[in-house]
Amino acid sequence: MLSRLSQAGRLALSARHAPTIPAFRPHSTESLASWRSSITSQSFTEEDTISLSRIRGLISTIELAPDGPATAWSTGALLPPGFSLLLFPQTSTPLSQLFADGTEPGGSYHPPAAPEGPLERMWVSGSWQFLSGMKKMRVGDEVVSKIVVEDIKERTGRDGLIVHGPLTCLLLLSALRHNTKTVKAFEYRATKPLIVGTDVWFCGKWTDGGRKECELWVEDAEGEVYMTGRAVEE
User: Fold this and answer.
1) Is the bond preceding residue 115 a cis peptide, omega within 30 degrees?
2) Beta-carbon neighbour count of residue 105 at 10 Å?
3) How far is CA 164 from CA 70, 94, 123, 194, in A?
4) Which helix (H) or strand (E) holds 228?
5) What does the alpha-carbon distance between residue 78 and residue 192 come to, in Å, rounded to a whole number?
6) Would the pLDDT of 11 be above 60?
7) What are phi and psi of 222, to 5 degrees?
8) First vs last Cα of the chain: how many Å apart?
9) Strands 44-49 and 142-149
10) pLDDT tens digits, residue range 73-127?
11) Environment class of 132 (CB within 10 Å of its CB; exposed 0-12, middle 13-18, buried 19+)
12) How many other CB atoms are there within 10 angstroms of residue 224's CB atom?
């Protein structure tokens, strides 16, 4: 019942992600194994500010009618579920020192890049809980993120330019956000790489009579599914 809807938001107070690691070169096995054994015992803390310009930029990019124009958003506005995906960008490393895929080397929750690791790295799933008893995030707030990596899997690479997974997730959650009152929990998993240029629909259906639980998915005209999700309304 949420077909042909797009975009998303996120008031994520906790987040757990599962990165998928594409096939890597034989000589990278030792380095990658070392990273894998150490990363799951670590946590990473980052700080950021929910800037108005960044939120307006996202609103202008995804262009969802229910969100209104970017100029309608101001400091103090509640941050919609999913919009926290916009926070905590990796910007402290000089451009010349970044890996080929734009991620930061060393001290990061990203696996090592080529030649020590895979040529490409990506996140394929995640889950959030939007805790009703805690303060809601607003534009202008200073926020802190604690990151924990729980699972790592290896996959083969794909041809073509892949759509940013968190963007697909954001659009899927937005489809729900504009068709319900308050989201209590949301989880997603990418089931197939979405290649740029593919026409897709953001779909969903209620799975209980009380409209509290919802199944979500992203599919193309042939019914091929690229991402699935599940949400619980508060």
Assistant:
1) yes
2) 13
3) 22, 23, 9, 8
4) strand 225-233
5) 33
6) no
7) -90, 0
8) 19
9) antiparallel
10) 999 999 998 899 889 887 777 888 777 666 676 556 666 666 666 666 667 788 8
11) exposed
12) 13
* pLDDT score at 41: 78
**Are 130 and 124 within 8 A, CB to CB?**
no
Q: What is the dihedral of CA 80, 84, 86, 87, to 10 degrees?
A: 140
Residue 125: Cβ-neighbour burial (10 angstroms; 0-12, 13-18, 19+): buried
Query: Between β-strands 15-22 and 142-149, what pairing exists: parallel, antiparallel or unpaired?
Result: parallel
Give the Å distances, CA to CA, from 169 to 14, 189, 219, 220.
16, 9, 13, 15
For residues 149 and 10, give the distance between their C-alpha atoms in angstroms, rounded to a whole number.
19
Is 229:168 a contact under the CB 8 Å cutoff?
no
pLDDT of residue 179: 86
By the 10 Å C-beta count (0-12 exposed, 13-18 middle, 19+ buried), 7 is classed as buried
In one letter, which amino acid is 86?
L
Global pTM value: 0.73
Q: For residue 2, which of 192, 213, 215, 210 has the smallest C-alpha distance?
A: 215
* Sequential DSSP letters for 42-99: --EEEEEE--HHHHHHHHHHH--GGG--GGG--TTPBPPTTGGGGS----SS-GGGS-
Sign of the CA dihedral 174, 179, 180, 184?
negative
Q: What pLDDT score does 134 carry?
A: 67
% of the chain residues with pLDDT over 90 = 38
127 vs 154, which has greater pLDDT?
A: 127
Instruction: Please indicate whether residue 4 or residue 38 has the higher confidence score (pLDDT).
Output: 38
Could you give the percent of the chain with pLDDT greater than 70? 73
